């Protein structure tokens, strides 16, 4: 059973999420909060698996609130505003739902959550990505599964529900979430530098202010990914 909190200052919005969620039998709503501050003590003492969070709320926005959480649960933002999408996805949220939220779009978000949970459980129950030296992955494209040698990969770029794998002599477009891909790549060989980019560490040619250069192409580094990149640089000096 997955334990959830809904945070929204609009009762109608909470009711819509509850109605959509009621179709799925494996979710329990632990609390309904009118603002982020009400949720703080609940998150501090309860195990929460998924947080449905509005963005424009009194006192503190949903984005800023999630930033304050040291160990946040998985988050689905629910909002009437498109403006916060970049900031939201830099927090590695499960999804970003625009109101009014259709049941079809809500179901997609829940499926993304299930995918992340499955990948995480597989990692926990077997070997961690850090301990597995994977040599290749299969990517589905054009109704076929292509074997991609990880040593040939330059970087992965996310385009919504799709990912482009750029290799030394090819590129493959596959329907995949970059967050799911990140869970399954060996971390000793790949690093996520932006919500839209995962790069091969071996293929990095240079690192500059706000970018990584691979194959003469400058890829942006997101604010939330800079600390991990800095640790990589320090560890290899």
Structural class of the secondary elements?
Answer: alpha/beta
Number of helical elements: 7
Lateral strand order in the biggest sheet: 2-1-3-4-5
Q: Stretches where pLDDT falls below 50 for ≥5 residues?
A: 126-133
* Overall domain count: 2
**Overall mean pLDDT:** 87
Please give the CATH architecture of the largest domain.
Answer: 3-Layer(aba) Sandwich
Q: Let me know the CATH homologous superfamily of the largest domain.
A: Response regulator
Number of E-state strands: 15
Rg from Cα: 19 Å
Report the sheet with the most strands, covering strand number, pairing sense and barrel closure: 5 strands, parallel
The CATH topology of the largest domain is Rossmann fold
Task: Present the secondary structure layout.
Blueprint: E1 2-7, H1 11-21, E2 27-33, H2 36-45, E3 50-53, H3 62-68, E4 74-79, H4 85-89, E5 95-98, H5 103-125, E6 136-141, E7 144-149, E8 153-159, E9 162-167, E10 171-175, H6 178-184, E11 190-194, E12 197-200, E13 206-208, E14 211-214, E15 217-220, H7 226-235
Parallel strand pairs: 1-2, 1-3, 3-4, 4-5
Antiparallel strand pairs: 6-7, 8-9, 8-12, 9-10, 11-12, 13-14, 14-15
Helix pairs in contact: 5-6
Question: What report would you give on this structure?
Answer:
30% of the residues are buried. The protein has a five-stranded parallel beta sheet, with helices on both faces. A five-stranded antiparallel beta sheet has the order 10-9-8-12-11. Strands 13-14-15 form a three-stranded antiparallel beta sheet, with no helix packed on it. 31% of the residues lie in helices and 32% in strands. It is of the alpha/beta class. The longest helix is centred in the middle third of the chain and has 23 residues, at 103-125. Helix 1 (11-21) links the parallel strand 1 and strand 2. The chain has seven helices and 15 strands. The chain has two domains: 2-125, Response regulator (Rossmann fold), CATH 3.40.50.2300; 131-235, Beta Barrel (OB fold (Dihydrolipoamide Acetyltransferase, E2P)).
